[in-house]
Amino acid sequence: MPRRPTPSSSLSHFLTPDTKVTTSATLATLWASYGSILSLTATHPTLLPTPTKLVLKTISPPPHASSDDESHLRKLISYHVERYFYSALAPQLEGRGVKVARSFPELLLPQREGNTGVLLLEDLGPAGYPQPAGHVLSSITGVKAVLTWLARFHATFMGKVDEHHLIPPPLEADLDRIDKGIWANGSYWYLATRQDEYRDMLESGEVEWLEPWVEEVDRLLHDPGAKGRTVLHGDCKAANIVFSASGTECALYDLQYCGAGVGVVDLVYFLGTSVSGRLLEGGGDEELVGFYAEEVRRAGGLVEEGVIREQFEWAVVDWMRFMGGGGGVGEWEVG
C-alpha cells in the first residue's frame, strides 16, 4: 500500500511540543472511516533520544454515527478497550516472553474534542519483528511460535480477569465507563452479538446438527467460573501477527476485542483462520492443542490439559456456529 505524506502541522494536534517528527506518512484509513493509522519517525529529549519509528492511531468517528447503532458502538468501545489494554494490561506482560508494542502515552496531548482516542505505539518492524505473517501460516515453527505467545499471554491473566471492569455487549454498555475496561466476552463473534446470523443459520437448515449445542456451548465458554478463565487477545489471526527475522518468535497487535474468556477461543480462531489445513490433518490439530496446553503449564497456567481439550471441543462448535451463520461450514476455514 503506498504511503501518503502527512503534514507535520497536523501531528501537532496530537503530540507534545517536545516530540519532534522528522518523517510521517499515512498508512491506512480505519474501517468505515473511523480514523487513520500513521507511520512516523520522531525524537524526544528523554523518551526517544534517537530517531524512532512509531505508529500513531487516531480515532475520530464519522459525524453521522448513531449512538444506538450496535456496529458503531462496537467500534467505538473497541478502540477504548485497546487503549486500556496498552495502559493497564501490557505492563504485566513484561518479562513473560509475550511481545506487544510499547506505548508512549507521555508523548500525547490530552484528547481533543471530537477525537475518541489516540494511540501511539512503537513500530514492531524495527523493534525486531520485521516479517508479516501473511494470510496463511504453513510453517509449523511459526504456528508453534504463535501458540507459545498465546499460552504465555493467557497464563499471565488467569485468575486476574475480575481486576478489570468488564464491558457488556455494545447495546448494554454504559458509555461513561468504557474508558477503563475490557470486554466481558473477548472476541467479536460470540453468540450474543450474532443473533441475526444465528437465526439465518437455523432457517437455512444446513447445519441443524449444531442447534442442540449452540446455546449450551455459549454458556460454558462464557461461564465466569470456567477453569482457566483469562483475558483473550480476541482477534488472533495472521493479519495481526509479525515474526522475528528467524521466524521463531512473534508479536501480536490489534487488541480491540480483548476480554474475558477461556483461552481456546483464541486458539480455535487462529487455527480456523490462519493455519494451513495441511498442518491440521491427520490429528495435527490435536497435537497443536497438546502443544498449547503444555506451553500454558510451562508458563504457570493452572489448568489441566484435559480441561483445555474439552474446552477446545466447545470452542470448535462455537466456531462452526459462527461460520455457519456466515454462509458456509467446512472442517476449518483454511483448508
UniProtKB/TrEMBL annotation:
Gene3D superfamilies listed in its UniProt record: 3.90.1200.10
Pfam families: EcKL (PF02958)
Record InterPro entries: EcKL, Kinase-like_dom_sf
Superkingdom of source: Eukaryota
Name of the protein in question: Aminoglycoside phosphotransferase domain-containing protein
Highest classification ranks of the organism: Eukaryota, Fungi, Dikarya, Ascomycota, Pezizomycotina
